[in-house]
Every structure is written in structure tokens, then in C-alpha cells.
Write a structure and sequence with these properties.
The structure holds two protein chains of two kinds. By secondary structure, chain A is α/β, with parallel strands linked by helices. Chain A is built from eight helices and 13 strands. Chain A has one domain: HUPs (Rossmann fold), CATH 3.40.50. Chain A has a nine-stranded mixed beta sheet with strand order 11-10-9-12-8-1-6-7-13, with helices on both faces. In chain A, strands 2-5 form a two-stranded antiparallel ribbon. A two-stranded antiparallel sheet of chain A has the order 3-4. Chain B folds into four domains: about 230 residues; about 120 residues, Fumarate Reductase Iron-sulfur Protein, Chain B, domain 2 (Orthogonal Bundle); about 180 residues, no CATH class; about 120 residues, no CATH class. Chain B is mainly alpha-helical. In chain B, α28 links the parallel β6 and β7. The chains are: A alpha/beta, B mainly alpha. The complex binds iron/sulfur cluster (2 copies). Chain A: GO terms for molecular function: electron transfer activity. Chain A: It holds the Pfam family ETF.
């Protein structure tokens, strides 16, 4: 089977306090440390697990981004992905959901994938719309919030996370699957992985390779517009309860007030 | 070469039989030893011929003087006499063998003094044997139990030695009786005359019977030896001779990361020959188990079992390693092991459990106490390396540690840009602002980010300022040294961090190798000034150890001093004026493993504390090189402690036993572990954990305002 996983390089969410550029109203990506989206690391783990259980399958990581995004793809290769594709083109700068999905879909289409993995959402933009848009562009069914995935014959079967538990959902292949965050353990690369990552196939595509017109993507093709940006309200300081013999009571009261008891 | 009074073999037929048996036994022995040596030859190479003169000197002291085992006096003395008894008895044996050829040893063969000495040693050994047997059979220290050779090996050996002695005594007795005193010996002269009544012919016959019995026992011993734990009799001298003379705190470098096939050890033959020789040399005394903090707190790690596990795994796979089919396989007598294990277990995760490997704090107590210089920690780390770099198999909490060190240059999810924040407002210059600083204060991750240890950093700054030291810190240019990564087994990450730090340190001209070349070239060092040694100081023993002892492996040579030593120096040079005895609280000092055992710093911190405290230092039960780990080394600070008692609480309880009010330490990890341990045993009211720098800083305040709050009053 040909399995794909869409990944993204983002400013390190753990150390970088996301800064927004007031002029472009976009996330500042220069001068910060960039990493493979930690959410994607777990999605990759899910894809690797499936590939290994299926046997005779190839897993390709695909990303759209500037040249620096190579690093993120190398990490994916080191984790055990077989092949990487980077779509990089100056005309892609400023792409919105639509432009991103259109580009990724165009690249995927050339590959005739059987299964496409995406994270539910990226850890920087959090729109959560790209996987759906890719499915739409490719005319494929989409399975969402998977915490477990199996292939049975020509069907993909997932356990879909719900508020109370999970649903078993299936669809014919090919399909797009989004992985619920925290369902899989990220893989720390082995030395063999790191070393072989340097030798694994790595292709770079431009817009013209995909037969896309610059007007369809990037700033030029964007249909989305950020109207304004503002700071999220800081979380109010917590309340510290010191036990003077009545802590249990205070806590019970608190929980009751919030209808948690 | 005077002939013996009575020919022991009774003529050439006997002598011929003797020669045949003797040569056969020797051949079997030789083949068995050959098999063991072949296994070593198949292992990785390693050079252990540096420091030759010291090697020879120490060899005489440890092997001939038995200085290692003598540290444990009663079994030590017993061992001392057994060892020397053995040597002397060998001469006696030679004498008896020469008898078969109608000869004797020149000079001592018929010498009564020698004969008396020989028998005195026989008696010594006999007494020692009783001591050993009592220990093994009645006292039964737990550390003596053997998984590898089973409970009987020890007794078989003791029995064989006893038989050797008994038959020797009988040979002498009947030799004396048969020759009517011409064949003089001490024991013979005691017991021989009582057998005169049997008549000469009977005595001669009995003499011959016991001569044969003696020779055969000795030869069986020889054949049995290579497969038994008493292999150490042969291997120990070599092991002591080839022990590590490099810095004790340095783990071996894993070379050529880019091109190697394996990363660490998952099969016994991937160890170096010296690491495998350790297994042959292990006497199974179990001393290492008695001092191990993991063993002592109920973890599944016993350092002795690590050493024996490696040996077991090596011997299990002996045919595979030598290559099949091989000589030793075809000649069962030549094989050190007869019963091959049915199912061969893997070394890691089989013979040695992963839990055992992860439980090690790399405290080095086992290596310190081992009488035969066995190196446990490099083996444990080698096997961890395989788990981490080949299998990506480690406690889950370590993943974020690795990722953070790699991405952020510190163990947490904090941007390294904030590394100098702790020093805001303290007037601490960055190296970039003060490139000619005489001293670089390497703050380390704990000093930079950990709330508790920032106080130590602040205290140290106060001290440096008071002493007028021209110093600076690196701030965001400093990154994690990589020490926890290396000790957990991530050599790749350590090398990455080390290279990065070495580049920074070199750019400020701290590399002594570089300064020397620069000085040699133009007579000037850094910035065109005459070169003076530029020092790095740090309050973190782990940073200290890895920069000092391990960075040289990658070309970074620096003058690094632990802050306790630097403070002691400042005091002795008169640069710090401190009110002596200002602190009246009862104080005990914990030796951090990487300051004490690994780098031999015991006196300096004690000197400083003794000056400041009116009661001096009250020692804990285990102190100096016997110090008991806080539980935080070897990356353990970053792992959960899921099994057994807590190491940190065990040590805190020891501090409490001294009734001290202050537990002084000199390591950020110790401080962290002890703060936690004190809370764990609910002793916050009774015991304060303080870094030596904090105590000194308080002394400075005291000196400034003498009437101010007197600590402890
Ligand atoms: S280094 Fe310390 S913890 Fe590790 S095995 Fe030796 S004594 Fe035990
Ligand atoms: S490793 Fe050393 S201390 Fe431990 S049992 Fe063997 S000889 Fe004794």
C-alpha cells in the first residue's frame, strides 16, 4: 500500500512564545526555532505502526513549506518514514487553508495514494481544516479523530474518539484519516534511523511540477483574510487552598459551585 | 637436585604413567584457557598499555600485596594467606613432581627452613579455609550467592583445596615415617613417628598412595579451575594490571558515529576484551552489591549480576562467537562449560533485565569497592546505548528530556534565550561583554533554571564579587553539557552538545591546548595578552566532570574547577575574609559522586565547612569514597523511581541519624533530590539542605553585619 502522511514545520510550541506580525497579522516564523509539529510526530507514529503491520507498504511524508522544512521531513525520515516530498515555491508564501490543501492535494494526486494520514490540526494555526479540504480536492472519504486504525481488505476501519468513548467507523480506500492527538506515542529516532534518513529518497517539487498556477495559491490565491488579531485573556490565577482542617469542605463547595459534583 | 629419600613412583613405569596423566591434564587445562582467551580475542580492541610504570607498581601492590581485599580485614587476611599459601605450596608441589624424576628443587628442595615455612602456610591456609567455609555456610552473606555457578561451586573449590592440603599433610607424614626422618617436614615430624609401627614397606606404599592422591587432586583442581568462579585466581592479576588509568569520570567515547554499524552493546562480544576480562576476574565476592544504592533500595539491579551476566552471556554464546564448528565444541573436555543452556537468552532484556540497567545512578560505588578493579558503569552505559540508540527503548519520561536538550539546549521546555534571567540585576557580565574575564562561571541548566538552584547561583555570584574575581557567564551561549544524555546512553546527543559547547568555549580562548599552541607561536595568548590559565568554575559536578574529563575526547581541553575547590582556594589565598565558626548548627556533608569518587575531591569542601562551622563536620555513616548516592545521577533525576524504597530518602535518613540540622551538599542534583527527600520523610523542621556556596555567602553577610542574625542562635 502507498501510505502518505502530511506534516508541517512550526515554531517550537514549547519554547517560542508565538508572536504575531501586526502588519501581516500572521505568525512570525523567522528567528525562532522551528520543529516538526509535535502533533505530527504522533501521527507519523500511527502511520508507521500501520505500515509495519501491513507489510509491503511504503510510507511517504509530504510537506509544504520553505526550504527549512527539509529539517522537519528529515526528522520524519529518521523516525522511520520511507520517503519525503517537500513542496517549496516562493509563490506559496502566504497560502491559506485552501491554497495549502490545493497544493498538497495536487502533489498527492500524482502519487495515487491508498491512505493519507493527517493530524487533526496543526499546533500553530489550529484551523483543523486542511485535512477536510484535501479530502474534498481528491474526492476521497475522510475518517476523523482516529485513535486506532486498521486496514481490512479494501476498507479502512478506525476507532473514532467521541466525548464518551469511541465509534467504529469504516470507509473504502483510498481515504483521508485524521489522528486524534495523544493517541499514539511519538517515536524517538534511533541512530540507524538518523543515519539512514540521509540516504532515503527526498524529492522537492515546485508549483510548475504540480501544474498549479501561482494565482491559485499563496497570497494571490488566498480567500481567507485575517481581520484582526488580539491577545487571549490571560487565565485567571488559581486559588490556593491551605488545609486548616476544612480544605475538603472548600474543595467540595468549589466543585459543587461549578456543577462538577 | 638431590634425589628424594624414596622414589614416589617406584620406577620408570610409574613415572611414565605420571607423565602421561600430567601432560593430559595440562593439555585439557591449556585448551580450556585457550577457549577463554579466544573469546577475548574475538571481542573489540582497546588499548590498555598506557601508564606502564604505574601499572607494574600497582600490580605488585594489589596482587602480591593483596591491598584490595585487605580493606575488608577478616576475609581479607584469610585471603592474603590463602594466596601466599598457594604460591608457596606450588613450590612444594614442584618438589614432589621432581621426585618422580629422582630429583628435587635446587637450594630449597631439602631445606628444612623451606619445609617448615611450607607447612606453616599449609596451617594458615587451613585456618583461612575454615573462615571461608563458616562465612559461606553459616554466616552466608547475601552478596556471596551465585546465580552463574550455583551454590556448589564455592564448596567444591573449598573441598578441593582442603583435599590438596590433606593429601599433602599425609604425603609428608608417611614420607617422614617411611624414611625415618630423612624426608624432613614440620608436619611429618609431628605425625610421622606415630606410624613407625606400620613398618617401612607399608609406609612407603602409603607414601606413594598419598603422593598420587595429592598429584591427582591438584591436577583436577587445575582442570576444574577455568570453568569455575576461581577462574579469578588466574584472571585477576591481568585484570588489575590492565585496569583503567584514564580519568575515572570519563565514559569511553563511541567513535565514528556516522559510520558505525552498532551503537553500544547488545551482544557480549561487542564489549572490549577488557570489559569481558572483568567477567573472568570477578571473584563473586559481592562487595559491589553491598554498596549499590539501587540494590540497597530494592531495585532489580545487582552490580555483581551485571558482571556475571555479561560473562554468562559470553559463555552461552561461546561457540557462536568462536565460529562453528570449532575445536572446543568437538572436544568436550576442552569446553569450559559442558551443559550448554538449552535456550540462549539475549544479553539485554534476557540475561540482564532492562529495569536493572535503568536503575543505575552511575554513582561508581561498585567500582570504588571492587577489589579487582572491575568497571561496572561503562558496561551498564554501553548496554543503555544500545537500548537508546538502536532500539529507542527507554523510560518514556526520557523522550522529552532528549527532545528538550536537543531543541532548547536545556532539559526543560524553556527557551535557552532565558538562560541568564536568573542573574538579572545582579550585575553579572556575559562573556560577550567581558571577553577577558579571568574566570568563566559555568552555571549549568540547574543553576540557570531550577528555582532552588538559582539561589545557589546567586550565592556563588556574591562570593565571586566579594573576592574580586573578574568573571563572566555565557548566558544563552551556554547549553546543556549533555551529561544526562550521555549517561542515559544517548551518546549522539552528548557529542552534539559537547561539540557546540566546545566551539563556544574555544571562541573565548579557554581551550588550554589552543592557548598553548597560540603561546608557542607568538608568545601571546588570547587577545594578544600574555597567556595565563583561564579557569572555568561550576557548581554542578556533572558539568564539571564531563567538561573536565570527557570534553577532551572531542578536543576540548579546559581548566575546570568545582566551586567547592575554588572557594577553598579563595579562602586560602586570603581573598575571602570569613568569620570562622559563625555557624553553630550541627552540620553533615554529603559527597556528591561526581566530585568525590569520580574526581577525588573530599578535603576542600570539608575544609571550607570546618572553618565556618563551630562544630566542624559531623560525618555520616557512609562518607567520602563510601558516600551513598542521592539517587539523581546517571540520568535518574529525570526518570521516575517506581520500584523499592527511595534512594534520596535513604540518604536523608542517614543524615538524620547524625542529628545534624544542616545537610550540606555541593551538587544541584543532590540538592534537588534531598529537598525532595526531606519532604518525603517529613523532616522539613529538622533538616535544612544547603549548598556549600550558600553557607559561604551567609558567612559573607555575617562579616558585613556582624551582629545580624546569627545562624542557629
Ligand atoms: S554505579 Fe552505583 S548504582 Fe550503578 S551499579 Fe554501581 S553502585 Fe549501583
Ligand atoms: S564485581 Fe568486584 S566487587 Fe563485585 S562481586 Fe565481582 S569482584 Fe566482587
Amino acid at each position: 500500500m502507498k501510505i502518505f502522511v502530511c506534516v508541517k514545520q512550526i515554531p517550537d510550541p514549547n519554547t517560542v512564545e508565538s508572536k504575531l506580525d501586526p502588519a501581516t497579522k500572521r505568525l512570525v516564523r523567522t528567528g525562532v526555532s522551528l520543529v516538526l509539529d509535535p502533533g505530527d510526530e504522533t501521527t507519523i507514529a500511527a502511520a508507521i505502526k500501520l505500515r509495519d503491520s501491513l507489510g509491503n507498504s511504503e510510507l511517504t511524508a509530504i510537506s509544504m513549506g520553505p526550504a527549512s522544512a527539509q529539517e522537519a521531513l528529515r526528522r520524519a525520515l529518521a523516525m522511520g518514514v520511507d520517503r519525503a516530498i517537500l513542496i517549496s515555491d516562493s509563490a506559496l508564501a502566504g497560502s491559506d487553508v485552501l491554497g495549502t490543501a490545493r497544493t498538497l492535494a495536487a502533489a498527492l494526486k500524482r502519487e495515487n495514494p491508498d491512505l493519507i494520514f493527517c493530524s487533526t490540526e496543526s499546533t500553530d494555526g489550529y484551523t483543523g481544516m486542511v485535512p477536510g479540504a484535501i479530502a474534498e480536492f481528491l474526492g476521497l472519504p475522510q475518517l476523523t479523530f482516529a485513535r486506532e486504525i486498521n486496514v481490512e481488505g479494501t476498507k479502512a476501519v478506525i476507532k473514532r474518539v467521541t466525548q464518551t468513548g469511541y465509534e467504529v467507523v469504516e470507509s473504502p480506500l483510498p481515504a483521508v484519516v485524521t489522528i486524534a492527538s495523544g493517541s499514539f506515542e511519538a517515536i524517538y529516532p534511533t541512530m540507524k534511523g538518523i543515519m539512514s534518513a540521509r540516504k532515503k529518497p527526498f524529492s522537492q517539487l515546485s508549483l510548475s511540477d504540480l501544474g498549479l498556477d501561482p494565482s491559485q495559491v499563496g497570497e494571490a490565491g488566498a480567500r481567507e483574510q485575517v481581520l484582526s488579531i488580539g491577545k487571549a485573556e490571560a487565565r485567571a490565577a488559581g486559588q490556593i487552598i491551605k488545609d486548616e482542617g476544612n480544605a475538603a469542605e472548600i474543595i467540595a463547595d468549589f466543585l459543587q459551585r461549578h456543577q462538577l459534583l | 637436585m638431590a634425589p628424594p629419600a624414596i622414589s614416589p613412583t617406584g620406577g620408570w613405569i610409574g613415572t611414565t604413567i605420571f607423565v602421561v596423566i600430567f601432560l593430559a591434564a595440562l593439555t585439557v587445562f591449556g585448551l580450556r584457557v585457550g577457549q577463554l582467551v579466544t573469546l577475548l580475542a574475538k571481542a573489540r580492541r582497546e588499548d590498555r598499555t598506557d601508564h606502564l610504570e604505574e601499572r607494574i607498581g600497582d600490580f605488585l601492590l594489589v596482587v602480591l600485596g593483596q591491598s584490595g581485599v585487605l580493606r575488608d580485614p577478616i576475609p581479607g587476611l584469610a585471603h592474603f594467606f590463602t594466596f601466599w599459601g598457594f604460591i608457596i605450596i606450588q613450590f612444594g608441589l614442584l618438589n614432589l613432581i621432581l621426585g618422580a624424576f629422582n630429583g628435587s628443587l635446587p637450594l630449597i628442595g631439602h631445606d628444612h627452613t623451606f619445609a617448615a615455612l611450607l607447612d606453616l602456610f599449609v596451617l594458615f591456609v587451613l585456618v583461612s579455609l575454615i573462615v571461608f567455609a563458616v562465612r559461606r555456610g553459616i554466616v552466608r552473606p547475601r552478596q556471596l550467592s551465585s546465580r552463574l555457578h550455583g551454590p556448589w561451586d564455592g564448596f567444591i573449590i573449598l573441598g578441593l583445596i582442603f583435599l590438596v592440603l590433606l593429601t599433602l599433610a599425609l604425603v609428608e607424614t608417611f614420607g617422614f615415617a617411611a624414611s625415618h626422618g630423612e624426608e624432613w617436614s614440620l608436619l611429618g615430624s609431628w605425625f610421622g613417628p606415630s606410624f613407625y609401627g606400620l613398618g617401612t614397606a607399608t609406609n612407603v606404599a602409603l607414601y606413594r598412595v598419598f603422593w598420587w592422591a595429592h598429584i591427582l587432586t591438584v591436577l583436577s583442581f587445575l582442570v576444574y579451575l577455568p570453568g569455575s568462579k576461581h577462574l579469578h585466581l588466574m584472571a585477576t592479576p591481568f585484570n588489575v594490571f590492565f585496569r583503567n588509568y584514564g580519568p575515572r569520570g570519563a565514559l569511553p567515547l563511541l567513535e565514528n558515529l556516522e559510520e558505525r554499524e552498532d551503537y553500544g552493546v547488545s551482544k557480549a562480544e561487542q564489549f572490549t576484551w577488557k570489559q569481558l576480562l572483568d567477567g573472568y576476574a570477578c571473584t563473586e565476592c559481592g562487595r559491589c552489591n553491598t554498596v549499590c544504592p539501587a540494590t540497597n533500595t530494592g531495585k532489580p539491579l545487582l552490580p555483581k549480576e551485571i558482571i556475571l551476566g555479561v560473562k554468562e552471556s559470553l559463555l552461552d554464546r561461546r561457540h557462536e562467537i568462536v565460529g562453528e564448528p570449532n575445536l572446543f565444541q568437538k572436544l568436550p573436555l576442552a569446553d569450559v562449560r559442558s551443559n550448554g543452556h538449552e535456550e540462549i537468552q539475549p544479553l539485554v532484556g534476557g540475561v540482564i533485565s532492562k529495569e536493572a540497567l535503568w536503575a543505575c545512578t552511575t554513582c561508581g560505588a561498585c567500582m570504588e569497592i571492587c577489589p579487582v578493579s572491575i568497571e561496572h558503569v561503562p558496561k551498564i552505559v554501553d548496554m543503555r546505548r544500545s537500548l537508546v540508540m538502536e532500539e529507542s527503548d527507554f523510560p518514556p519520561e526520557v523522550t522529552s528530556l532528549f527532545n528538550n536538550i536537543e531543541r532548547n539546549g536545556n532539559p526543560w521546555e524553556i527557551s535557552n534565550d532565558r538562560r541568564a534571567e536568573w542573574a538579572a540585576g545582579l550585575g553579572v557580565p556575559l562573556m560577550a561583554e567581558n571577553p577577558d574575564a579571568e574566570v568563566l562561571y559555568w552555571v549549568g541548566c540547574m543553576g540557570s533554571f531550577d528555582q532552588r538552584n538559582r539561589k545557589v547561583a546567586t550565592a556563588l555570584v556574591k562570593i565571586l564579587k566579594a573576592a574580586g574575581v573578574n568573571f563572566a557567564i555565557l548566558g544563552p551561549e551556554e547549553s546543556c553539557t549533555g551529561d544526562p544524555a550521555r549517561r542515559i546512553g544517548n551518546e549522539y546527543l552528548w557529542q552534539m552538545m559537547a561539540q557546540q559547547n566546545i566551539e563556544v568555549l574555544n571562541s573565548y580562548g579557554f581551550n588550554t591546548a589552543q592557548t598553548e599552541t597560540a603561546t608557542a607561536q607568538n608568545g601571546h595568548g588570547h587577545n594578544g595578552q600574555t597567556s595565563r590559565p583561564r579557569t572555568i568554575i561550576t557548581a554542578c559536578p556533572h558539568c564539571f566532570n564531563t567538561i573536565k574529563n570527557e570534553y577532551p575526547q572531542l578536543g576540548g581541553h579546559y581548566e575546570v574547577i568545582h566551586h567547592s575547590v575554588f572557594i577553598d582556594r579563595l579562602i586560602r589565598e586570603g581573598r575571602l575574609q570569613l568569620p570562622s565558626g559563625f555557624d553553630h548548627r550541627k552540620l553533615t556533608y554529603h559527597d556528591p559522586c561526581y566530585v568525590g569518587r569520580y574526581n577525588g575531591v573530599y578535603d576542600e569542601p570539608r575544609r571550607v565547612l570546618t572553618v565556618l562551622n563551630s562544630n566542624g563536620v559531623t560525618e555520616m555513616r557512609r562518607n567520602r569514597n563510601r558516600s551513598f548516592c542521592c539517587g539523581g545521577g546517571g540520568g535518574r533525576a529525570w526518570m521516575e523511581e517506581r520500584i523499592g524504597k527511595r534512594v534520596n530518602q535513604t540518604r536523608v535518613n542517614e543524615a538524620l541519624e547524625t542529628e545534624a540540622e544542616v545537610l550540606a551538599a555541593a551538587c544541584p542534583f543532590c540538592i534537588m533530590m534531598f529537598e525532595d527527600g526531606v519532604k518525603g520523610v517529613e523532616a522539613e523542621e529538622r533538616l535544612q539542605v544547603e549548598d556549600i556556596a550558600e553557607i559561604v555567602a551567609r558567612a559573607l553577610e555575617e562579616a558585613a553585619t556582624p551582629s545580624a542574625s546569627r545562624a542557629g542562635q
